[in-house]
Design brief:
Structural class: alpha+beta
Number of domains: 1
Strand content: 5-15%
Number of strands: 10
CATH topology: Cytochrome-c3 Hydrogenase, chain B
Distance between the termini: 40 Å
Largest sheet: 3 strands, antiparallel
Radius of gyration: 22 Å
Shape: globular
Helix content: 40-55%
Strand order of the largest sheet: 1-2-3
Length: about 400
Amino acid sequence: MSEDGKKKASYNVPIGPIHPALKEPCLFNFKMNGEVVEEADFAPGQAHRAIEWMGMRRNPVQIVHLTDRICGICGVSHTLTFARCVEQIAEIEVPERGHYVRTIIAEYERIQSHLLWAGVAAHELGFDTLFHLCWRIREESMDVIEYLTGNRVNYAIIQVGGVRRDFTEDQFPRIEKSLKYYEDLVGKMLKLFLEDKTISLRSKDCGVLSYDDALQLCCVGPTTRASGVNMDVRQDAPYAAYGDIDVTAVLPDVYGGGINGDVYDRIVVRLFEVVQSVGIIRQCLDQMPVGEVLWEKKYPKILAACKKAVGEASASVEAPRGECFHYVRMNGKPEPEAWKVKASTYSNQLAWLKMVTGEQLADLPIIVASIDPCMSCTDRVAVVRNGKRDVLTKEELHRLSVEKTRRLMQ
């Protein structure tokens, strides 16, 4: 009942799993009172690809090919995290120059990921001109990544023990050119996003996640930093070359205002992290050591070291969306005995329930997009029958898929 004694008219609004506002499938169900969300729930699981299952039937050198494909936007983060796990177990020492190359590629990945998100955010707010501008600007980072690694997506640069190829001196001017390109655009991008009245009206005090909620829900990355939580793996547990570089977590007050934990603050954090990434890459170029970039040039020797490895290890990397965590256990065989991946979105999904409650229906697309969700990174499946876990064969999965498709077609 409402305050005036009238009965509330609540109704359910399902959104997804396929929807123009969703980059990947996820089913949402909102209980509405008029245009306001009273309750919310979501059901992921439509993008499961069995990558962990496939990985546990391959050796670590082959798994690197899979980790690059866990996500099309932050593949280097997953590959680097997995490689760090195997390197700990097999006691493989990455050359110092290899650490710097890894760091440069990781920061270029952060730039292109944040600019992709900025474009999507502009689109969800109805600002398609800014959407196209962001994606055009993003092309510069993609071009440099292709120039350095040979690929625009799935860079295939990380290998257990370092990186597959080195940067040459004649490539440095192209990197410098890209850094200057972004430095010249900083003022324009900040003005377009942070001083535009329409974006401010649509994003301020919208989708608020408090400091306490961000901590209790164990959120990560820009999502938790936008709520004022000073947490960044590069700062708190440095890896690769980050121990030699000045890295501090970017919080919304870097723009001179307070910390509200809303969509606007998430925009602030990601834009200033692009600025930070440019500075990190420049430091890496200035401090780049000489030497090898791979522990062993012959892959059979790397594989032999992995096959003999016994033990377990975990590692974390600050992916563009937040902490990416991998766990690996080896038992002296070619393939891992266990491999578990926890992507950033897995840690941020529950924040949706706090963010959307009490918000308008029209604001749901930008609120959902504000954590920069990646469902293909996140989705997991476990089949339990009579209290026991089952492993489905390829044939069983195919049969179940066909049966489900036929049911849907009816």
